[in-house]
Write a structure and sequence with these properties.
By secondary structure, the chain is of the alpha+beta class. The chain is built from five helices and six strands; from the N terminus they run αααααββββββ. β1 and β2 form a beta hairpin.
Length: 194
């Protein structure tokens, strides 16, 4: 069985078990297609455009498309169409264009810095004044040079003493040496031949 763990991680980082009808419908569709079992799925906060992507996939993808998305190459006409629909280009103040993934990533990619304006909750302000993407908060990795993005966080503790951010629990991949972070979680079932 071939499992597309890179894509599964991207899907979970995008909209793991976020609240909202589009995300619930996405995971329910995967369950209805027989691709994942019942059980817990990691919880993540979605980034802008990802609710649109989940809604688009729900509306367009067949079970065969979903199987390819989870277990195959991860690339399909449906997926490509949804990314095009949901990931518009950003226009900088000087008229140049950027892919939307560069907006509010903590690094000015437009010459005028307009891609980093009005980012609000998308960025975390470190104690030293630096900014990092908010999805990295409480992931057990210090993204801020001063480590302030990990202050006050709760972690999943593996039996070997290593710590995992909660988003690594029930993410379809064992991160603890003995796999205890996947106990009681949904599991992925890929059809034969994919």
């Amino acid at each position: 069985m071939r499992v597309n763990y890179v894509l599964i991680a991207a899907l979970l980082l995008s909209f793991g078990c976020s609240s909202g009808d589009a995300f619930d419908a996405f995971w329910n569709k995967a369950r209805g297609c027989g691709l994942i079992t019942s059980g817990r799925i990691a919880h993540f906060n979605p980034e802008p455009g990802e609710e649109c992507w989940a809604r688009c996939i729900n509306g367009r993808a067949t079970c065969a498309d979903m199987a390819n998305l989870f277990c195959g190459t991860g690339s399909s006409m449906v997926e490509d169409a949804c990314w095009t629909e949901c990931e518009p280009m950003f226009t900088c103040g000087d008229g140049t264009s950027l892919e939307s993934g560069y907006i509010c990533d903590g690094s000015a990619d437009c010459a005028d810095g307009s891609d980093e304006l009005n980012c609000g909750a998308l960025l975390f302000t470190c104690a030293n004044g630096d900014h990092v993407e908010s999805w990295g908060r409480c992931d057990a990795y210090e993204d801020c040079a001063d480590g302030s993005d990990e202050v006050g966080c709760s972690y999943f503790m593996c039996s070997d003493g290593s710590a995992l951010g909660q988003d690594y629990v029930c993410d379809f991949e064992a991160d603890c040496p003995d796999g205890e972070d996947e106990i009681g979680c949904a599991t992925l079932t890929c059809p034969a031949g994919i």
